[in-house]
Amino acid sequence: MFILIYFVIVFLVVEISTVLLVYTGLEKEVSRFQALSLLTGTGYTTKEAELILRHPLRRKIGGFLILFGAFSLAVVISALSNILAERSGLRTIGIAAVVLALLLALLKMRRIRIPLIGKLHDHLQQDFEPSELPVQETMYLSEDDLYTIIHLYEGSSCVGSRADSIFPASEDIQLLYLQRGDVKIRMGRLEEELASGDMLHLYGNKETIERKFRDEINRLKEQTENESKVIGLEE
Fold first, then answer.
1. pLDDT tens for residues 138-176?
2. Are strands 199-205 and 145-151 parallel, antiparallel or unpaired?
3. If you ran DSSP here, which 8-state letter would residue 153 be given?
4. Domain limits of the chain?
5. Any idea which architecture 145-234 has in CATH?
6. Residue 201 forms beta bridges with which residues?
7. Which of 14, 78, 173, 233 has the fewest CB neighbours in a 10 Å radius?
8. How confident is the model at residue 201, as a pLDDT?
């Protein structure tokens, strides 16, 4: 019975953490996976994990999960010993599970969810500098917006053209800066002639960017897939 209640507590902690991560702007699937990863100490080093590390509020939630996971095994062993000695410990753990279940239910209520999300975002804007936050937070990206890096390969239709001819003012695409090797070009970037190997840091309408640079995006996907196959064969 104790083991069952303990697993219920772990499940509730993961769900509460997932809900809070979602309220900070993270996708639900990503939030749950990262919560489980932090709780178990798996330590996946992925781009999704960076969304936790670069966000101050998510780091606090992650820190709690790491501590909870680290001490939970010791708690289980201690609680089992107490339960074997006297049954009163089971009631205490059961009460803890009920409290967590009520907390989860409250967090999912619309009357609490919407004000809480607003307070979390206000807290970010008031207490943290823009440089401390991820791009998604500082630029207020919606579903239609995109920040991405386009790699120009040899033979790309953009190579040899001036940047201002590729990014006219009539299109909802901004060339934030041009990276050429170790050099980041901001001043006069639109007057530069694009070359093979350049990396274009873009911000704008997602559909427009994906349509305009379809060949470059597909080329990068193919290259990534080929590299994955080579690594798989080597292993």
1. 565 667 888 888 999 888 999 999 999 999 988 999 999
2. antiparallel
3. P
4. 2-127, 145-234
5. 2-Layer Sandwich (3.30)
6. 149, 177
7. 233
8. 92
